[in-house]
Write a structure and sequence with these properties.
alpha+beta; Trna Endonuclease, Chain: A, domain 1; five-stranded mixed sheet; 30% helix
Length: 117
């Protein structure tokens, strides 16, 4: 499976998983000139910006380890832009990482790191 298909499959799994957890999905693949937010969701208390990382193995590290400091700073900038554009500046917010490992056989492993950033 190429990286693009793997990423799309991971995001589909992520959306279904998050909806089962009771979150409302506000946006997927929210694009700006500076970059993209994978998933924006909300619960009754806050808006949640979710970075999805999908891998086929942990041979080169856990998926969540790919969300380094530079990526975290970019996500914060993109989130601020989303909040301003949608007049939600006074909202409580949280940044999560959803790490997914999809193996050729077996059920995908999903790790939800709430408040990871």
């Amino acid at each position: 499976m190429d990286k693009l298909k793997l990423g799309k499959k991971g995001e589909e799994l992520a959306v279904k998983f998050l909806q089962k957890q009771g979150l409302k999905i506000l946006a997927r693949n929210y694009k700006t000139p500076q970059g993209e937010l994978d998933i924006i969701a909300k619960n009754p208390k806050e808006i949640i910006f979710i970075e999805v990382k999908t891998r086929t193995s942990q041979e080169f590290g856990k998926p969540a380890e790919a969300v380094n400091y530079r990526k975290q700073e970019k996500l914060k900038l993109l989130a601020q832009e989303y909040l301003c554009t949608n007049k939600l500046e006074n909202s409580n917010l949280r940044f999560d990482v959803l790490a997914i490992v999809i193996r050729p056989q077996g059920k995908p492993k999903i790790e939800w790191l709430q408040g990871a950033i």
